[in-house]
Amino acid sequence: MFNHPEWISYHLNSIWNETNEKWNEGDMEWKTVGVTPSRFIDIPGDIETNKKGLPPIGFRAMFPGRWYSVVEFPSGRLEIGYHTNIIDLDTYVILEADRGEDCGKIVGNMSEHEFESSVAKIRDTKIEFELKKILRRASLDDLNKLRQRKKIEAESLKQCKDLVNARNLNMEILSCEYQWDMKKITFYFKSDRRIDFRDLLKELFKIFKVRIWMCAERRTNNDLIKKILG
To answer: The domain 16-36+144-216: what is its CATH number?
Structure first.
């Protein structure tokens, strides 16, 4: 179920850029994102801190306060979501996203105790990822929107590749993914050097009128989530 390319969003040395909400020619605000605005879990200290004031582990193992689910997106990207009830595998859900909502499929479940135990076993590692709140199960209309998005993504991918080729940028655009609510589009790429995206981002923003992210290909994020899943 994990036979997809894998991506990372948080390394300090990764290349990840985003436009602002409204592009202002006079004030070209853009940012290089080194660390996501996420939940940071230090091993093992933060886990111990989080347990303060909670019921004993044995009780929580029998009656988990929340369930953690691994959610897979069409690009193969993985996220960890949480909900008060367990959700069946292969169920599509709507969950929190970057200033909006996204849609993905449940490919793994863990109880609260199982999740904390798995994280605690990963020694000498600072885990940095964002836990997404699962809002609801996806409806038939939601799934239709997901299917319709594939055609739009194919067209957007071609447009981005054309712009990159026209500017002779030393990068290969691999794929793209719209957030389910169409408020953001992420272009995945690979390059052997750091790229100045500012002019490219301006052009992409003019075309798509949504927030644009450029994400360098990596593997660590999905590997980490699979390790937690066990």
So the answer is: 3.30.300
